Amino acid sequence: MPDILITEDITGEPVDELAKQFDVVRRGDLWRIPEELKSTVRDFRALIIRNQTQVTQAVVEAGARLEVIARAGVGLDNVDVQAASHAGVPVVFAPEQNSISVAELTLGLMLSLARKIPGADRSTKAGGWERKLYTGVELYGKTLGVFGLGRIGYRTAVRAKAFGMDVVAHDDYIHPDSVATSELRARLVTVDELLQSSDFVSCHLPLTDETRGFFDYDRLCQMKPSAFFVNTSRGEVVREADLIRALTEERLAGAALDVREEEPPQANALAGMENVILTPHIAAFAREGQQRVLASVCADVDAVLRGAHPKNVASV
Questions:
Q1: What sign does the CA torsion over 182, 187, 190, 191 have?
Q2: Between the CA of residue 172 and those of 40, 124, 169, 288, what are the distances in Å?
Q3: Catalytic residue among 151, 170, 204, 281
Q4: CA atoms of 74 and 96, how far apart (whole Å)
Q5: Known catalytic membership, residue 104
């Protein structure tokens, strides 16, 4: 009987090492076919996924032989962890291994918005030399508002401080006297104060029932007309129709989205906006970060299948 099922395009040396020890079946497009996933998973001891495979209660129940589910990344909104726990199947993940990668892309998007880099690149390649048109703003002296001061939000703020930015944050689970806020010299503020005072708003919220659609028209309109919005967390925390409306009405200066409400997204007005940067959910896709993620989850899968305890297990 086969051992490990991989349902997305997940490759790398750690996976190859697993394949030397176990029977690994790679079905990179299986996430697209939920019914076939349910009929296939019943034969396997381990399931390795990224963010596209929906591991529902039905999938967990179909996996009668499953001993472990591995999420190659940090977000667990596509895994029914409670159902897995009830079935006695540990869910292993990589809670911090790609944090640097995501933080660096976030800063890259902020710089790109501030200095209008994508537009200037396109114009120059087309033969233009429009220096005044692409006059931007500095990060120095600006206020960064961070929603979610966890591993990624914290690392983003650390890097922003190196650019001379002030940091404010909102996080319901962080104490004002925490080490994170002390080291950053950051102020914990209310949602309204963060939106109203920030020159850049960076979202690092997990997707939950409370955060779904969190950034709606009313909240986006609280931002300064000169402010920029960046999201490298989960696309569903932003109502894209509301963001389009706010941008069209010039309620904010621009936005950068690495994640979308629907992935892959349907075509909408965002793609035609000069002050919007769109990337295809690549924040974690740096070679070093992916190596750390795969090494972590593959080590935990190996441990479980050999009867040992994994290191990074999600709790209900």
A1: negative
A2: 40, 45, 10, 31
A3: 281
A4: 7
A5: no
155 is catalytic: no
The first and second tokens of residue 151, run together, are 């591993």
For residues 195 and 75, the answer to whether their CB atoms sit within 8 Å is: no
Three-state secondary-structure class, residue 138 = coil
If one looks up domain 99-278 in CATH, what number appears?
A: 3.40.50.720
Amino acid letter for position 299: A
Distance between CA atoms of residues 288 and 206, nearest Å: 23
What is the tens place of the pLDDT at every residue in 230-284? 999 999 999 999 999 999 999 999 999 999 999 999 999 999 999 999 999 999 9
In CATH terms, are 4-97+287-305 and 99-278 the same topology? yes
Catalytic residue among 130, 263, 274, 288: 263
Among the four given CATH numbers 3.40.50.720, 3.40.50.300, 3.40.50.1980, 3.40.190.170, the one describing domain 4-97+287-305: 3.40.50.720
Q: Which residues contact 157 (CB under 8 A, 6 or more apart)?
A: 144, 146, 149, 167, 169, 184, 186
The count of other CB atoms within 10 Å of the CB of residue 249 is 12
Burial class (CB in 10 A: 0-12, 13-18, 19+), 148: buried
Backbone torsion region of residue 313, taken as left when φ is above 0, otherwise alpha when ψ lies between -120 and 50, otherwise beta: beta
* CB-CB contact of 28 with 7 (8 Å): yes
Identified catalytic residue from 234, 239, 260, 292: 234
- Tokens standing for 73? 């990344």
- What is the Cα–Cα distance from 242 to 252, expressed in whole angstroms? 12
Each residue of 28-70: pLDDT tens digit? 999 999 999 999 999 999 999 999 999 999 999 999 999 999 9
Cβ–Cβ contacts within 10 Å for residue 250, how many?
Answer: 9
Residue ranges of domains in the chain:
4-97+287-305, 99-278
Q: Are 202 and 259 in contact (CB under 8 A)?
A: no
Is 219 catalytic? The answer is: no
